[in-house]
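agent> Task received from the user: take the single chain below, predict its 3D structure, and emit structure tokens. No templates, no multimer pairing.
agent> Plan: (1) validate residues, (2) run structure prediction, (3) serialize to tokens, (4) report one or two observations.
agent> Step 1 OK, no nonstandard residues flagged.
tool_call: predict_structure(input=
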Amino acid sequence: MAQRSASKRKRQASTTGQPHTHGKSRCLRILRQLSAYIDDELSTNICQEIRQHLGACPNCETFVMSLRQTVSLCRQSPAPTLSTADRALMREKILKTASSR
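)
tool_result: status=success, residues=101
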């Protein structure tokens, strides 16, 4: 199994130029904040921490670029027009899901 991890890091290094050298938990902590980061909703200190991580983590950097592109495309697309019945049904489903949690 250690050999498989080493070969995976080697593949990542060859495709991105840098190996992924830190634990996944660090990436998950950063990924949980990315939406707020892209929307400039975080403090300067947290933004700096995320930028440092992105500079050292090619996987997260690629993910952020993809997320920014997705957000940009969504902002360019017009929101669909919903009928009154569709809006009521959507509201009902959201409330049902929220109350079951």
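agent> Step 4: summary for the user.
The CA atoms of residues 28 and 60 lie 9 Å apart.
agent> Done.
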